[in-house]
Amino acid sequence: MRDVAIIGAGVTRFGELWDKSFRDIGVKAGMLAIGDAGLSGSEVDALFIGNMSAGRFINQQNIGAMIADYAGFALKHIPSTRIEAGAASGGIAFRQGVMAVASGMHDVVVVGGAEKMTDVDDASSNSILDSTADQQWEASMGATMASLFAMIARRYIHEGLATREEIASVSVNGHAHGALNPNAQFRKAIKLESVLRSGMVADPLGLFDCAPISDGAAAVILCPMDKAKEYTDNPVRVAASTQASDTLALFQRDSITSFASTRMAADRAFKTAKLSPSDISVAEVHDCYTIEGLMAAEDLGLYERGRAGKAFLEGQTLFDAGKVAINTSGGLKARGHPIGATGVAQIVEIAEQVRGTADKRQVKGARYGMALNLGGTGSAATVSILEGI
Amino acid sequence: MSSTAREWREIPGRYNLKGSKCPECGKVFFPKRSMCPLCRRASIGKMIEYKVERKGTVYTYSVVYDVPEANKRMKPYVVGMIRTDDDILLTAQIVDVDPENVEIGMRVQAVLRKIDDDGPSGVIHYGFKFAPCE
Amino acid sequence: MDVGIVSYGAYVPRYRITPEEIGKVWGENGKAMGKGLFIEQKSVPAPDEDVVTISVAAARAMMARTDVDPREIGALYVGSESHPYAVKPTSTIVAEAIEATPDLTAADMEFACKAGTAGIQVCMGLVGSGMIEYGVAIGADTSQGAPGDALEYSASAGGAAYLIGKKNIIAKINRTISYTTDTPDFWRREGQDYPSHGGRFTGEPAYFRHITNATQRLLADAGTKPGDYDYAVFHQPNGKFPTRVAAMMGFTEAQITKGLMTPYIGNTYSGAVPIGLASVLDIAKPGDRILVVSYGSGAGSDAFDITVTDRIRKYKREAAPTVEKIVSNVKYVDYATYAKFKGKIKMEE
Ligand SMILES: [Zn+2]
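That is the input. Now the predicted structure with zinc ion docked in place:
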């Protein structure tokens, strides 16, 4: 297996991009990444696209072909593959790209992630999101995604693992970072009280505990590590990219206050990278709901069980706190959560951090960073560890 | 979206909590599975029907305010995870109780209610919800 | 061999609205209306309840009290004027829910408020003739009253289920007779949301004529007189009519009180007499004699002469809640909530 490098990264603005179509944002992110890598584009020999539900959001399937075409690759007839794994679509597309390069099957790969969510109404987009849970035995029974995480939050509080305030502070942390990210959907810091007072979505979670509905796309360019210097002076090494799964329905788990898929993927990643949580300076964790981000910090081993809440509340997770910085992009809550784009956008953020180009939110001296992208209620998990060279 | 056949084939689970039991290791599953994840090949074709206990306790719950179309008239409604008396965890709505009176550990029993329909001219889907025990 | 009731179960939704609350919306003195009709409150089904779910709840309570294998049930009838489908039976859903399928016959019945007792008669015939071992008859409704109409003060929701058979009967049905004429006092045309009625025409030529005729014919056949019965249950579109018809025929208040549920739950239409009888069976002792007379607009009455058997001592009555218990679990709603629950507020589909 070959070592794989990220040689370019690009991300569009996230938000309600009324004047942009799926094709527009998908191609834009790809072009930004190709430009960042200093490629002409003709070097690319495969495309992997993370996308959750263009079929239901814009009524378009065959997304691999569509993106290849509008990115100008149709004439080259390179393979283009769309990957779907709920909200983990982007992260898992990244892993497919890494495997393609590591194996020697491809040399220069573009991994994109994109979602155009605002072309349908809120009720429809919620229904689409709910279908990443068990449609037949959760969603149909009245469980929304928000309510599933609310049930996790209630257990967390009930078992004394976190307080309501600690859970809410994940959102405060995200917004503090979003304010520093020009591409974030919400570029405004918020107070804890605002989260606690936001309108109920699924008790105990309010509107500010939940990621917004967003449009956006992100892309990275991969090539073998030994060829990376041909393209850039600032490559990022993929130290690990792992994946794990779990039961589709949350109720089938032994525990709902920890995701085994996250723990397994993290464990495999640290082993592959020969690193431990203490080596990590910066992490992008999946926080579609505040409780999800808090639990992720513990499942990844960045904090002991029941300790992450205090860290978020006290601001130890901020980019300049000197501890492991969490969600410096703003996270899913403040940066935005165009489903299929999220996993790739996390990789973009960590790549920027470990190569030192994260601008106002740069974590000082960050060498190793990690990303956790989750699908459903942790039924799909992918962890990547990146190293700045 | 018409889901007539898709819902029809789930009637045993939806109406009567029919799951399955592995004859090899004795583990029970809801919803039904055609294979035991523990015994795998040894269980294929041998899984037996198992009727889950209709009483249980609330393991966790949420009061849903941002509700799907199907439940607009029920807003806010309670959804919970119920641990049945035979130790199966499942997700269902909790009805016939005010949201502020629901609590973890509360005793509940399965009832049959409307869970959705395919619009005013479509098929009505019925399934289990849970209500406080008498 | 005798045919009778092997088991029974009842169900009434927990929500209630008062005549006063309804009257407030329509500029009427609801309190006085309620007093005149002798209705203190009426039940309201939750948005996820309908005749199917009410029938299933009643049927499951019925099955909980007996050891009869549901596969021995040879017929199942649901009588209602508010079946959720115009075409597609309620009875098949109920049969599936109590695991009586597939070896049985099932059908839905409609005869205004007496479709439930009509089902009992059909089951008696099938059981008596030996065609089936057990039959289930259910009367249930989520009846509709047009907004602002007098019916809105009474039309409610509830139902009861009866397992009819020959073995282990807790109450023997000594005889049943019916009195039927063509009397259009109340009707609903296909496609209409709400029923129409003949106002005062629903009284003397309709309710009173049919109930009294059916009762007198049954008493004559049985050679009994009102005083021979421990309990009498008459159809109860409100609290006033059954009280008056009882007095007219020489029945006392003591005889009808236990079976008179409408003042507390409203008019459950096809469920009314079955729920009233269930309330009586909840406290009945061996040897108790019960007169039951239903009335369905359009019109007809079914009368039953019933004697409680010794078997009721061994009967698992406690395996399901009594009617008294069911109707004590109450949550009051305002008119706006009631209108939302009942689908009277037009919503975007
Ligand atoms: Zn097994």
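Residues 203-222 of chain C form the longest helix (20 residues).
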